[in-house]
Amino acid sequence: MARDLAIDLGTANTLVYMKGRGIVLNEPSVIALNRQTGEVLATGREAWQMIGRTPGYIVAVRPLRGGAITDFEITERMIRLLLQRVGVSRFTRPKVVICVPSAITEVERRAVTDAARRAGAADANLIEQPMAAAIGADLPIDEPVGNMVIDIGGGTSETAVISLGGIVALEAVRVGSFDIDAAIQNYVRREHGIAIGERTAEEIKVAIGSAYPTLDENQAEVRGRDLMTGLPKTVLLTPEEVRFATEDVISSIVASVVRCLSKAPPELSQDFLVRGMYLVGGGGLLRGLAERIERETKVPVKMSNVPLEAVVLGAGHVIEHYEALKNMFMGARR
Amino acid sequence: MSTGIVILIVAVIVVVAVGLGRRLRRRAANDGVDSFRRQIDALSPEARKPTVDQVKSAERSNGDERADGSDVA
Lengths: 334, 73
Prior knowledge:
- The complex is a heterodimer.
- Helices cover about 40% and strands about 25% of the residues of chain A.
- Chain A has 11 helices and 18 strands.
- In chain A, a hairpin with a 5-residue loop joins strand 4 and strand 5.
- Chain B is mostly helical.
- Chain B is about 80% helix and about 0% strand.
- The termini of chain B are far apart.
- The interface between A and B is medium-sized, with 37 and 29 residues.
């Protein structure tokens, strides 16, 4: 008998929670394929290490962008391989709950559930990421009080107001931490004339990226390919430059939080001033982001204890209490 | 005679149908209340604790396996 699964199918990482066991898989959502034969060469961390470093016949891709499936067939193969790794076979078909961005279209929803069913799931249901994040972050969403969660993922940023187990207000933008990486890549190319890969851009973000000035500001040495000469070149990048490069993306995320706040009913709005808002997701780890949101909204912002695992933990809780919580699936509420 | 029996049968059917309908409607209303209560109970911190504890204990036994190869100097 298969154990039921909860999957956080993120643009950046895929996490799998197995009923009764906890988180059994946490890997980048990347797949490496042989371009000629279409054969899968690697998935997860192994494939992630290949990004930007492959010979011509290998391609390492992220099959999800902006939280949506960009290549259905590749996503299905990736899900199938990941499920195989956690023990799902042709004979053990578990029930699966998948976390998806709340803003995905009906067509995208169907693509995700179809991909999971074809990959071996007996039944696939979807749950909104901010709802799962709020459950996983241990917010008191069972009470009639305003709980606000900001989930910043690789491809989407979602803010939701939740009370009494339901979403009261929601705001989502298809902008996330990959857009911050892309902005850094573009800036370095434009201002310093060197080309860097997406992994290097991510490393710059982790090393010196910030959304608000911080106390420990260090420069970073960045190595790339000179666009004029084609030779390797090293440049120094400052945190102010990175803030300038990523300003548009950060502003767009902060603006969506402000829009969500303005949608909340007044009775719940006053709760935020006392209880604060909770940041989850890998993008929420960007230095100074909590301070920046706090400064612009005048509402306290707190970091979840489990920012990277909150979504899959929440979905895991739903799979543990499947019958009681099945009303929370997308499409179940009327 | 036969007309009387038919009317009686129809009346019995109507009474039974109305009774059944009322009972079903009451049960449906209670189902809504029960299902909402079950949902809220399942979302309580006490109900969520075992899920979080399970993951924490698994993390403790596995150690921190999160690795990221960041090497920007």
